[in-house]
Design a protein that fits this description.
The chain is of the alpha+beta class. Helices cover 46% and strands 19% of the residues. The strands form three sheets. Strands 1, 2, 3, 4, 5, 6 and 11 form a seven-stranded mixed β-sheet that branches.
């Protein structure tokens, strides 16, 4: 029997310790895992965000350089056209090495005829100078020749789309305005879109196999993707279903609603940011026009972190947490955190209960029940300290009339206005109580009757000034009954309330008159903010 008595407590203690340590170890391990996982995830997101910012800046810089070329060449060509000579045809030489960024440069007459054409493409496309009057970009330029035109980034279709030779271009053009204010011709630069597309993803802090990059146009079609068979579905018929708005409509909707963000899909993490070409052109360079649908100005740059990288991240974290360190300290920490959180919640709950049970919702003053307790406590404390106590019973004038004529909403505004006037004059140690309806009570510890009447005068002058300004459609006013309670007085809390209420009605029957002398006295020395411990 004795052996059984000794073994039973050991088993119970072992089970309790084992279960407690197992539960605490699981909670701490889960917390550490989530913390490390989110920290590593934030590092990946920060790296990708930096890459997107870099790509966005490079995109902007590249296109601004092209627009500067356009403005420079446009001025030279316009000068040549005005002179009526062909010297401007050498203008391309001014570009120097920058010609490598263009597929084609054209000058087109006002009726769509090609006046000049220079082909810089590496491939022999066999293009000839044809009538441009029916081309969509020409019609856009003609409709608004004063603007800088930027087309969508798309495959070149000058003489039909060659399935074996995909050449992405971005056309930038402007009208060349003559002396009569009309466009004499149009200058169009066909920018090699591959310059931007090939460089996307080059700037990388992470290894190249740890992320993928995408560029998507405003319709949801891929312009750059690790899967080359998925790009330009808007122009290649057999790829027309490779569009984000159909494949992932919820993701596409999120990207259109938010200019930047992130999402998880099938274990992969994606960060995206929109690029608005309208932000690239400074206002003093000219207006901005795209194809008829202005949404063509928006592109979306997306970085993908594959599932394999996310799994590798999880595995490394789990491996580092395989053996717990300092189990005892971890348990103490976990218990401390839980207890502190529980106590903190309990305190906040108690504070809320105290607030709702002791405060008036409208004014933020203490309510009647709390006020009576404070009055009794202040009376007892003043006698022990042998310090004066002043009590003022307040009644709002004509509140019922305001409520009846203008509604209770205006009546509440009247109450709050007067409460604010009075509260400005009080110390943090004073008590402001709403006894109910239009009646209030001030409890002023360590305050003589003379000091209490100074407060009354300051409030009275403020009332007078507001009334004289005719801000409110009624007369502001609050009657006071001020009573000083000396330390050796035997008066009770009920007696104080009765006496101060009587004094208040005496003032209501003979409301104080504000004269110039009172105003000067208040403005001369009593209008400054009330010090924390004095009046």
């Amino acid at each position: 029997m004795k052996a059984e008595k000794r073994t039973v407590p050991k088993i119970i203690i072992f089970l309790l310790i084992f279960i407690s340590l197992t539960a605490l170890h699981g909670a701490v391990s889960a917390y550490l895992y989530r913390s490390q996982y989110h920290n590593n995830l934030e590092l990946i997101q920060e790296s990708q965000d930096n890459m997107i910012s870099f790509e966005q800046a490079r995109f902007q810089t590249e296109l601004q350089d092209v627009i500067l070329d356009l403005l420079l060449l446009g001025g030279i060509v316009q000068t040549g056209l005005d002179k009526g000579d062909s010297e401007y045809r050498d203008f391309v030489d001014l570009l120097g090495g920058s010609t490598g960024r263009y597929e084609l440069i054209r000058v087109v007459s006002a009726d769509g005829q090609v006046l000049f054409q220079q082909d810089f493409s590496d491939a022999n496309t066999g293009l000839t100078a044809t009538d441009q009057s029916r081309r969509f970009y020409f019609q856009e330029l003609k409709s608004d020749p004063d603007s800088i035109y930027i087309s969508p980034l798309e495959l070149k279709e000058e003489s039909g789309l060659d399935r074996d030779l995909y050449i992405p271009v971005l056309r930038i053009g402007k009208g060349l305005i003559g002396g009569d204010g009309e466009a004499d011709a149009y200058l169009i630069l066909s920018y090699k879109g591959s310059i931007i597309l090939d460089k996307i993803g080059e700037y990388a802090v992470l290894p190249a196999d740890s992320f993928k990059t995408y560029l998507i146009n405003n319709e949801g079609y891929f312009l750059k993707s690790p899967d080359e068979a998925a790009v330009y579905g808007n122009q290649i018929s057999e790829r027309q279903d490779m569009v984000l708005s159909k494949v992932l409509p919820d993701v596409w909707l999120q990207m259109q609603m938010d200019s930047e963000g992130s999402f998880f899909l099938n274990g992969n993490m994606y960060l995206y940011r929109s690029i608005d070409l309208g932000d690239i052109i400074p206002e003093d360079w000219g207006r901005f026009v795209t194809e008829s649908n202005l949404n063509h100005r928006t592109y979306y740059l997306v970085y993908e972190t594959p599932r394999s990288v996310m799994k590798s991240l999880s595995f490394r974290i789990l491996k580092s947490l395989l053996f717990p360190v300092l189990v005892t300290q971890a348990i103490i920490l976990a218990i401390s955190v839980m207890l502190s959180q529980w106590i903190n919640r309990l305190q906040r709950y108690q504070e809320k209960l105290l607030h709702f049970s002791s405060m008036d919702d409208l004014t933020g003053c203490m309510n009647r029940r709390t006020g009576r307790k404070i009055l009794e406590t202040s009376l007892s404390l003043g006698r022990r300290r042998y310090s004066p106590l002043s009590v003022a019973y307040l009644d709002l004038n004509n509140l019922k009339t305001v409520n009846d004529r203008m509604g209770h909403r205006e009546g509440d505004h009247y109450i709050l206005t007067m409460v604010d006037l009075i509260r400005e004059q009080l110390r943090s140690s004073d008590y402001f109580i709403r006894m109910g309806g239009d009646e209030f009570l001030l409890i002023l510890p360590d305050c003589s009757g003379k000091e209490a009447r100074k407060i009354r005068r300051r409030v009275l002058v403020k009332e007078y000034k507001l009334n004289e300004a005719h801000i409110y459609p009624y007369t502001l006013g609050m009657s006071w009954g001020i009573m000083e309670v000396l330390p050796d007085s035997s008066v009770t809390a009920a007696g104080i309330l009765a006496q101060s209420d009587k004094l208040m009605y005496e003032e209501k029957n003979s409301y104080p008159v504000v004269d110039e002398q009172m105003i000067r006295e208040v403005d001369g020395g009593e209008h400054s903010p009330v010090p924390e411990d004095s009046y």
